[in-house]
Structure formats: C-alpha cells, structure tokens
Design brief:
3 copies of one chain form a homotrimer. Chain A has helices at 18-26, 40-51, 71-84, 100-112, 130-141, 153-166, 180-187, 206-210, 253-267, 277-288; strands spanning 6-11, 31-35, 62-67, 92-95, 121-125, 145-150, 172-176, 192-195, 217-220, 237-241, 244-247, 274-275. The first copy, chain A, is of the alpha/beta class and 291 residues long.
Chain lengths: 291, 291, 291
C-alpha cells in the first residue's frame, strides 16, 4: 500500500508560512507537519525523525520544505539537513525561503521566452540580495553575460565571486548603481533588465529605461509601489511598452506558483532530490516546454 | 477540481485550542493549520498568506477561525484580519474566542424557544463580560428590553453605550447587582434571566429567583459549581422548575456545538463572510427553524 | 457516520517529534494535532479540549500520544492527563516519550523468543535509566530474576524499590558495575543481558561477554558506536555469536516500530486505554503470537 505523502515544513520564522502551507495542500500532499522558529542546531533531530521512520522503499513519500522570510537562514537549514543524509537514508528536500528560488526561476524564464539567454547580456538590479543572486546564477548558467548591480561596488564584487564559485565560466561584471547616471551606464547595451530589489524602492526610472535602445525585456519583482522599474505595472505579463516586453511581480506570479507546485510534486517521486535554485529553474523549464 | 478545505486556526493562547480543532475536523475541513501565540501585529503576514495563494475562484475553500481564551484579543485579531482584505481578495473568517459567540447565540436561542423576545424584558447578569455583552447585543437586536447587570454600575453603563453604538434603538438599562436585594430589584418584572458570569460564582440565589413571579426562562452559562443561578442544574435543558424553564451550561451545549459546526461549514460556501456575534446567532436561528 | 481519527501529540520538547508524527500517519490516523513545549500545568486545558468535544459514543476516535525526549516529563504529562478523566469522559492515551516503552517492550520480546523468561535470570545494564527501568519492570513481571546494574549501587537500589512498588513479588538484585571486574561478576550465571545505556558508551566488553558461559541472549539498545555490548552489531537480529543470540538496536527496531504502530491503532478501538510499559509490552506479545 502506498504510504501517505508527508511534507515537513521547516520555517525559521515565528509562525510557519501559510502561503507555503496552502501551496503544499494544493500540491496534493496528505499530511503537512509545520515547524516554526526552527534553528539550524535543531535540524538534525528533526531530519532524523523524517529519515529513520519509514523504510527506504517508502522514503520518497516523506519530504522536507524549507521556508521562512530569511533566505540565508533557510540556506543554513538546507545545509544542515542535507548533511544528515547518508547512503539511501535520505528524503527529498526543497528550499524556497522567501520564495527566492521560485521567484528567480520565474523571472529568468520570463526573459527566456523572448530572447536567447546564451546570446544576451543582462543587468540585474539589486543583484546582491537573495533573489538577485539567484537570478544572476540562473542567467550565468544559461550562458548569459550578467552585470551585477548594487549600490555598493564591493558587495557586487563579492556576489560575482560567489556565483563564479558555483557557475564555472560565468561571465559577470560587478557594477555600482547608486544614482541615475550610473544606472544609465549600467543599462547601456543590455537587452534584459531584472529588478530584484526591496519593496517600495524604484531602482530604474521610466526615463532611463526608455533611453536604452538595446533593451528588449524588463522584469520587475517588486510588488509594492513605488515599483522597481518605472512604467512597469505590477500585473504586466509580456506587455509591450515602446518595444520592451515588460513583466511585473504579479505578472510572473502565475509561473512562480506553477513552479512551486510542480517542485513540491516532484519531491515525492524519489527520495534523493535537493531542489535549490538550479533544480527549481529546471523544473520551470520543463513546465514551459510542456514536457 | 475542487480545492481541499483549509481552515487556519489563529489562537492567541500558548497552545491552540484542541476543542476548536476537533470541531473543525468534525465540520469536515480537509486540512487544519494551527497557529498559537498569535499577536495582532503578526496577523497581516498570516492573512496575506491565506488570501494571496489560491485564485479568487478558489478562495472560498480557505477560511480563518479566530479563537483563544481572551475574547478582546480575539476581537483585535479579527479587526486586523478583516483590515487586510480588499475587493475580491478575501477569505471568510469566524470569531469564537472562548466560545463567546456560539455560547451567547445558544443562550439567546434557548430563551427564544419559550418567549417572544420582542415582547420580553431580560436581565443579563454579568452582562459586561465577553459572553454577557454578546447576549445583550443579541437580545437587543431581537427587540428585547435588556437590563444589563454588573457589580459595577459604571461598567454596566459603559456596556450599554457600547451596545447602543452597535444596535440602533437598543432598549437598555444599566444596573448594579452587588448584593441580593439589588439583584431582587433588578429581576423584578423580567421574564428572562441569563447568567453569563465567571465559573463558580452564584449570581442569583434560588430564593430570589423563586420570589420573582414574572420569570419564565432562566439560562445559566456557568458550568462549574457553585452555578450562577441557584437551583438550575448544569445539565438542565428546558427543565421546568416551579413555572420557570431552566437551562444549564451543558443544557445549551448541544445547541452551541451545532451552531459552531454549522458556522464553520458556512465559512466554506463563499469567501466574504465575517462571522461575529450577530451572524453566528443568525446561523443558529436557521438551525432552529430547520431551514 | 464514523468520525475522523484525531491523534493529539503532546510533546515536551521545543519541536514535536517528527518520528512520532510519521508513525502516527502510517497508523492511519486522519488528523494529527501537534503540540510542542507542553508543560504539565497546561495539560488540563488541552485534555479537556479533547474529552469535552465529541460525544461519548465518538470519543474512541480521539486519542492522545505523549512523547518528547524527557521520559520523566512524559510520565508527568501522562499522570496529569489521566487525572482529568472521569466516568465515560475520557480518551485513550499512550506514553512513549523517547521511545522508551516501545524500545523496552521490543528488547524483552527479543529475549523471550529464545529463552523462557520465567525460568531466566537477566542482567540489565544501565537499568536505572528510563528504558532500563522499563526493561526491568517487564522482565520482573514475566517472572524473570533481574540484576539491576548501574555505576551507582544507590541508584540501582532505588530503581529496585520503585519496580517492587509496581511489580509485586519482583525478584530484583541491585548491583554496581563501575568497572570490568564488577561487570564480570554481575554477568556470572545469567542467561540474558540487556544493555540500555546512553549512546556511545560500551557497558560490556566482548571479552567479558565471551567469558560468560551461561549467557544465551544479548540485546544492545545503543545505536551509536561504540555500542553498549562489544561484538554485537547494531543490525544484529538473532545473530548467533559463539552460542549467544545477539540483537542490536536496529535489529530490535522493526519490532519496536510494529509495536508502536499497533499501539496507536489500538488507541482508537475504545476510549479508555492507558498504554504505558506493561500494556505496550502486551500488545507486542499479541503481535508475536500472531493473535
């Protein structure tokens, strides 16, 4: 008899995310075990409880989802969790703290619908944040040249080094974009811009954007006005604005949600998946290609 | 495909109520998400997680139940939750902190089986507490004259003002009942008395009650001896005692439970219900009339 | 209509055990209500919530599982929980904090497959710990003579007194085994040895074990190397080693898991079970006999 599907939700926040819980239910899990305020030091006992209960042949029906608002905390929980596994004694695990992986995947997939990433050059605004770093990783792995922008040139350089350590041969340029003229220079010649900044901060004005003749796709991941890219509406989904295809946060939200759901379902097919940025992007690519 | 029914239990206590959880399961929800130690300042993120996950056509399958022992804390959670909603982006929500709404509804419905509320005058003992205030509201809205009794005349006056602000034209009289003779005066001429006091405190002696010739219905909501009304047994359910129809806490408990269950089921019929005292009473009236 | 099976997991730890949760799901409960950081002073309200919600005819579909790493804390939760029940107003409850009851039952059952307990004499190493005490209790109740060993003779004596208070006529001898020669003396003449010590501490060397000609069964409940009995492998399951039948922690783990699952299922057959060491052992015996 098939064992019920159990998803363990490990969340670093004081309350486990309801959003993540509802998506899990809609991904047809049978039982959700919610854990909040989870510290890295507590992960071992929790993960042992998940991996030592069912027999190896049933372990694909137990999986772990790591969430919470703090992405680096989530990364720490993921490292600790995967460090507990050995041999066939493991369960599949997915990281999507703050929705960073599914959001980055949806943003890059949106761009990939309109341009060939391997032939493109992209500017990632707020490229040093948790979502931005993942956008940079995914673009670089697809062969896209990436300008990694931050208010701080030092932080941009650090991110470039971190991504190069993960993506061999990544073509990255760190840039400071602390004012409009620096942003204009950073934008010059790229065909993709993705804004991954904090809510309510405009990173690229409508004027600067309109002045860039090379631009083909603009994706803004900020859902709270003022938005990150002037002139892009939060609900834009492949809306053309003077020759530029625009996406807003809600415009990529449908894709993000489909990826999240598909990734959760995939967790229960085998017991050895670790779904982080790249794996989740690949799930999105399969969805886009209809495979 | 119909989405599973998800009930989010927001509870201000250190442990979420098992009572509320069991009733939810028996109301045939599919998944219960329990949250404990919920503060008003945390409600926005939680409610956003519930309202921004499923599409508008599926939002009636997600609902929120607000519980916990502290009724005013629950009211605060309800205000914050409903303040998050806009347009069609909302989920149905029910408040029954400390069982106050379902208890008050069951008590007033018990009385309404035997007398015409619009032609009645009622005394509500401990009418300033969370259950008492709701009993006063429900009686007043049904056209009943209500004497609102408290040990403190000032508190009784405050409650009367609060209820008048909610129920236009409410016919209310504040009264102090700090001793037996004041209670006898307060009772004189009413046909309904409802005791909504704390556990283990007698608010009305058997002698005073027996001396009141106008009385037709006595409802005592205290389940822990000594009971609130002398001579009423906790299991009394329409038991006649010298011409007075008596109900004890367990005697109204069956009705309370049916209302609670019916209200939870109703939450999942549409996505825009806010079930507080009046709406929950109305659900009870529909149950009584068999509609 | 049959009510869904609700298991309330009361756990004293900061996070409720995932192990216990997964076993509960696989025992075919419908809804699991997880409570963590449960203090004895909070049990009354929680248990009242479980026992006062459904009617007496449905109470067998609600049950309580008490877990957590601290066995004496779990015992305290059990005492408080059972103290809340009266008359038919009760739900079935099982204690298996730290797996102590199911582990002790599996260990004693393993020995009982190979020797007649009523004709045996056993040495229980670390017999004063939570698992060890239960092993002593179960052996004594089966008519086995038991030598209760601890590094401290005083603690061993205390455990003997406690077990005698529970098992009338128990034949117990307290012993100090603080070094190899004391352990050799303690082992001399017994046919069963069960090591119930903490992880990573060898309680009986391979040499001392091999020198004991009377020994027939050795059970080691420590799963983390160095194991408790030299020469016994953690996966040993009735493996013969120079005439001694050996069991390691994983070797008794399958039986432990079957007992745990069967005990959970039994909880939902009636509403008045209290499953502690003896009752859980009896469930194991029924499983072994195929009844």
């Amino acid at each position: 008899m098939t064992k019920p599907k159990i998803l363990v939700q490990l969340d670093g926040d004081e309350h486990a995310s309801i959003f993540d819980a509802v998506v899990a239910v809609d991904a047809e899990i049978d039982h959700l075990l919610q854990y909040h305020s989870v510290e890295a030091g507590q992960v071992r006992d929790l993960v042992h409880g998940a991996m030592f209960t069912r027999g190896p042949q049933d372990l694909h029906n137990t999986a772990i989802f790591i969430g919470g608002a703090n992405v680096s905390h989530g990364e720490s929980l993921l490292r600790t969790a995967t460090g507990c596994f050995f041999g066939p004694m493991r369960v599949s695990v997915m990281l999507d703290a703050n929705g960073a992986n599914t959001t980055a995947a949806a943003a890059v997939l949106a761009a990939a619908r309109h341009v060939d990433l391997a032939q493109s050059e992209a500017l990632v605004l707020a490229g040093t944040g948790p979502v931005g770093q993942r956008v940079v990783r995914l673009l670089a792995r697809a062969g896209c040249k990436v300008r990694v922008a931050s208010r701080s040139a030092d932080r941009a350089s650090v991110t470039c080094e971190q991504v190069r350590a993960i993506v061999a041969g990544a073509m990255l340029t760190p840039l400071a974009t602390s004012n409009a003229s620096e942003t204009a220079v950073a934008l010059d010649g790229v065909n993709i811009v993705i804004a991954a900044g904090a809510a309510g901060i405009e990173l690229l004005s409508a004027e600067t954007r309109a002045a860039c003749s090379s631009l083909r796709v603009a994706v803004d991941l900020n859902a709270v006005p003022p938005l990150g890219i002037g002139g892009v509406a939060v609900t834009d989904k492949a809306v053309e604005l003077a020759g530029v295809i625009c996406y807003g946060a809600i415009g990529v939200g449908g894709t993000k949600m489909k990826i999240h759901t598909a990734a959760l379902k995939k967790l229960f097919t085998v017991n050895n998946l670790v779904l982080d940025a790249e794996e989740i992007y690949e799930i999105g690519r399969e969805l886009e290609s209809g495979s």
